[in-house]
Design a protein that fits this description.
This protein is of the alpha+beta class. It has two domains: 2-19 and 233-422, Enolpyruvate transferase domain (UDP-n-acetylglucosamine1-carboxyvinyl-transferase, Chain, Alpha-beta prism); 22-230, Enolpyruvate transferase domain (UDP-n-acetylglucosamine1-carboxyvinyl-transferase, Chain), CATH 3.65.10.10. Helices cover 31% and strands 25% of the residues. It contains 14 helices and 23 strands. It has helices at residues 22-31, 48-59, 85-90, 96-105, 124-132, 165-175, 191-202, 235-248, 263-272, 309-316, 335-342, 375-387, 398-401, 407-413, and strands at 2-8, 12-17, 39-42, 63-67, 70-74, 107-111, 136-140, 143-147, 157-159, 181-185, 206-208, 214-218, 229-230, 249-255, 276-278, 282-285, 295-298, 323-327, 347-351, 356-359, 369-371, 390-395, 417-422. The strands form six sheets. A four-stranded mixed sheet has the order 21-22-1-23, covered by helices on one side. α1 (22-31) runs parallel beside α2 (48-59) and α1 packs parallel to α7 (191-202). The protein is globular and about 65 Å long. The structure holds uridine-diphosphate-N-acetylglucosamine (UD1) and phosphoenolpyruvate. Uridine-diphosphate-N-acetylglucosamine is lined by residues 23, 26, 92-93, 120-126, 162, 164-167, 188, 306-307, 329-330. Belongs to the EPSP synthase family. MurA subfamily. It comes from Lentilactobacillus senioris DSM 24302 = JCM 17472. Phosphoenolpyruvate binds at residues 22-23. It is found in: Cytoplasm.
Length: 427
């Protein structure tokens, strides 16, 4: 584990360029094993999740190479075998190997995924989709085993009980080569789902409706890569740096964004009175003054993303009154609160059942030793550390490195005093 050290209290300025979306990348890599040819991605973020997925690919004899921001994957000599449980447990998205292996081999044995500790994260909807497509699924001791009869998978009508990004993508991965028509109702509409469908369709898949709540798939026999797939920019990384820029910036430009993916977030910054100018694929944030408090309610896309409720929090400390946040997707996503309190922040979990968090103006922030219990809690600590006087030592920083590519270089480029160091082992 690494710790991230932030020396705060300085104003920052300059430019930051956003990388490819973590939540696309971590689905695209498992999706690659469905291809009948090598595949190539660019704009790949250099994050721990990618390196762990490459370890999982290696265990299946799938060769991959990550140079610069280009990742090539050759699944043509793929072999079935036990997957490395440490790597599987290191990230949430390893569950995409369930859908991808099922689509490829009509059977799979995968241990339960890890990922951020943000409250209960069941996978019942994923399993419901696999069953509808013809798989027999059993769960025992944290392992999911799936197999089909001789006829393999078949198209099916699936209606999700709740909007789930992971279950929608997993259903697509399992169905893309399943003969017949699959319909996914109440599908998630996140931009990352469109990105996966675009990648698969460019290889010959027939997926319609991605980005709406009904997705229709006609199964195809072959998936043949003809070109490089460029991963969409990470809207969560972008939102994090926009919040940082409004909180401690003296003029920061954020490059490589798709503004339409960020509307619920930028609308909140505008409501607060941030100095924000949005261009075709970038945004400029000027220094903030007299920020208004706001109410944030997390919703599935296009609503305000749960992954941005913690990164916007430090900005709320600068508002002139009480702000509220309700996380309807992960009400227990509160790992940042106790840590921020250690830094002098006035933030409270008012109702853990409802996911209600109250944020009061906090002007006396100071450095402290804190823990990044999960990726976005870590992002909130980094921003608060930059705002605070003194030094903040953020332990368990690997949780941040799971999803923020080149974060040290990006922050140093705008003048931040940040570094990474190995964390001393706990006894
Ligand atoms: C790798 C990835 O893309 N991660 C994102 C994905 O996670 P993930 O795909 O795991 O999140 P989901 O969209 O599935 O979860 C949404 C809600 O549905 C519930 N649920 C989900 C599946 C299921 O089978 N049963 C069930 O009850 C969850 O507990 C949660 O309350 O979407 C989340 C919600 O936008 C984001 O925070 C994560 O960053
Ligand atoms: C919750 C997140 O990630 P994961 O689903 O990969 O744990 C996140 O990116 O905020």
């Amino acid at each position: 584990m690494n710790k991230l050290i932030v020396k705060g209290g300085h104003r920052l300025s300059g430019e930051i360029t956003i990388g490819g979306a973590k939540n696309s990348t971590v689905a695209l890599i498992p999706a690659a094993i469905l291809a009948d040819t090598p595949v190539r991605f660019d704009s790949v973020p250099d994050i721990l999740d990618v390196h762990n997925l490459m370890v999982i690919l290696e265990s299946m004899n799938v060769k991959s190479d990550f140079t610069g921001d280009v990742l090539t994957i050759d699944p043509t000599n793929i072999e079935e075998g036990p997957l490395p449980s440490k790597a599987i447990k290191s990230l949430r998205a390893s569950y995409y190997f369930m859908g991808a292996l099922l689509g490829r081999f009509h059977r799979a044995v995968v241990t339960f995924p890890g990922g951020d500790n943000i409250g209960p994260r069941p996978i019942d909807q994923h399993i419901k989709a696999f069953r509808a497509l013809g798989a027999e699924v059993t769960e025992k001791d944290g392992t999911v085993t799936m197999k089909t009869g001789e006829d393999g998978l078949h198209g099916a009508q699936i209606f999700m009980d709740m909007v789930s990004v992971g279950a929608t993508i997993n259903a697509i991965l399992a169905a893309v080569k399943a003969p017949g028509t699959t319909t996914i109702g109440n599908a998630a509409k996140e931009p990352e789902i469109i990105d996966i469908a675009t990648f698969l369709n460019n290889m010959g898949a027939n997926i319609r409706g991605a980005g709406t709540d009904v997705i229709r798939i006609e199964g195809v026999d072959k998936l043949v890569a003809q070109n490089t797939h460029t991963i969409i920019p990470d809207r969560i990384e972008a939102g994090t740096y926009l919040s940082l820029a409004a909180a401690v910036g003296d003029g920061i430009r954020i490059n490589n964004i798709i503004p339409e993916h960020l509307e619920s977030f930028t609308a909140k910054l505008e409501e607060m009175g941030c100095d924000l100018t949005i261009y075709e694929d970038s945004a400029f944030v000027g220094p903030s003054k007299d920020l208004k408090p706001v109410s944030v309610k997390v919703m599935p896309f296009p609503g305000f993303a749960t992954d941005l409720q913690q990164p916007i929090t430090p900005l709320l400390f600068k508002a002139t009154g009480r702000s509220t946040i309700i996380d309807t997707i992960y009400p227990q996503r509160v790992k940042h609160i106790a840590e921020l309190q250690r830094m002098g922040a006035r933030i409270y979990s008012e109702d853990i059942e409802e996911g209600l968090i109250v944020v009061d103006p906090s002007t006396n922030l100071h450095g402290a030793v804190v823990e990044a219990g999960e990726i976005r809690a870590g992002a909130a600590l980094v921003i608060t550390g930059l705002m605070a006087e003194g030094t903040t030592e953020i332990r368990q920083a690997d949780n941040i490195l799971r999803g923020y590519g080149s974060i040290i270089d990006k922050l140093r480029a705008i003048g931040a005093d940040v570094s990474l160091a190995a964390e001393e082992p706990k006894f």
